[in-house]
UniProtKB/TrEMBL annotation:
It comes from Jannaschia rubra. SUPFAM superfamilies: Dimeric alpha+beta barrel (SSF54909), Winged helix' DNA-binding domain (SSF46785). PROSITE patterns: HTH_ASNC_1 (PS00519), HTH_ASNC_2 (PS50956). Residues 5-66 form the HTH asnC-type domain. This is Leucine-responsive regulatory protein. The keyword Transcription regulation applies. The lineage of its organism: Bacteria, Pseudomonadati, Pseudomonadota, Alphaproteobacteria, Rhodobacterales. The gene is lrp_1. It holds the Pfam family HTH_24.
Length: 153
């Protein structure tokens, strides 16, 4: 169920999404409020689950993770045991940045970040040694045009 937010809440969320490391004073200045009401609203939005853990966005290329693959997976197995093993395998692999179960011809799509094609092949070989899949198609991203974790609030 969606939480009711007013304009001030949304402005605070926009400021936090732009830079969660900025001071309360700076956020209050940006949203046209004072520090205490901003802090109280942030606390309430955390308690309501609107704001999750604070984290840091790293530059993958600066860390040598220059290859981004989108991996399309089709499976002929849909039993609970297979699904549990598959999900455990994905969660255990730090290369998997995102995993989505889909409607349609493709069952899953993964976003996998690795150093290069050889590193992707190691990931792929390890994954298929753990769980059986019907078909895997890997698409190499040639250029990242837009990437954000910010939501349109």
């Amino acid at each position: 169920m969606a939480v009711r937010l007013d304009d001030l809440d949304r402005n605070i969320l926009r400021a936090l999404q732009a830079d969660a490391g900025q001071s309360l004073d700076e956020i209050a200045r940006q949203v046209g409020s004072s520090k205490t009401p901003v802090w109280n609203r942030i606390r309430k939005m955390r308690e309501a689950g609107v704001i999750g853990p604070t984290t840091v966005i790293l530059d993958p290329e600066a860390l040598g993770l220059e290859a981004c693959f989108f991996v399309l997976i089709r499976t002929s197995e849909h039993e609970a045991d297979w699904q549990a093993r598959f999900l455990a395998a994905l969660k255990a692999r730090p290369e998997v940045q995102e995993a989505h179960r889909l409607a349609g011809e493709i069952d899953y799509i993964l976003k996998v970040r690795v150093e290069n094609a050889r590193a992707y092949d190691r990931f792929y070989q390890a994954l298929i040694s753990e769980v059986r899949v019907f078909n895997v198609t890997a698409l190499l991203s040639m250029e990242e045009i837009k990437s954000t974790v910010a939501l349109p609030v």
